[in-house]
Specification:
By secondary structure, the chain is an all-alpha fold. It is 65% helix and 0% strand. It has helices spanning 2-7, 18-43, 70-86, 89-92, 94-118, 120-128.
């Protein structure tokens, strides 16, 4: 993002209270992500996104009542906070690219593994809680 803003200085724009807004978004994103990690720790299941098939419990409480992917949502909010701080249109292109990438290469495979592991319980969870928000 930073390199993109340096390559396209003409895409810069003014953001009122830029630093405060960026700090608030970053703090919010960190809080969302950490709430997801804490829920996994409380359930004593794996936090590793590389091996979702090893999950011992389907976590549906806490922040997982609002989003199926709070850790990724938290990272997205942090990315948006960084884009606000950079105040450049090019930086904001990273957020939708992040969502597209995560949906295709991380969340999709995770959901397949969780569906195989938890069956109808995961299907019911998917039907009542959105992937992002």
């Amino acid at each position: 993002m930073w390199l993109g803003t340096r390559a396209a200085p003409a895409a810069a724009f003014h953001v009122p209270v830029r630093r405060i807004t960026a700090l608030c978004l970053t703090t919010l994103g960190l809080g969302i992500a950490l709430a997801g990690v804490a829920s996994f720790r409380r359930a004593r299941t794996t936090v590793s996104p590389l091996k979702p098939e090893t999950a011992s419990t389907l976590v549906t409480s806490g922040v997982y009542r609002l989003t199926r992917n709070p850790m990724y949502l938290g990272v997205l909010v942090i990315v948006v906070g960084w884009a606000v701080f950079l105040a450049n249109a090019v930086a904001f292109l990273i957020a939708p690219a992040f969502v597209l990438y995560m949906n295709r290469f991380q969340i999709g495979p995770e959901e397949k593994a969780l569906a195989a592991r938890f069956g109808s319980e995961f299907a019911a969870y998917q039907s009542r809680v959105r992937r992002w928000l």
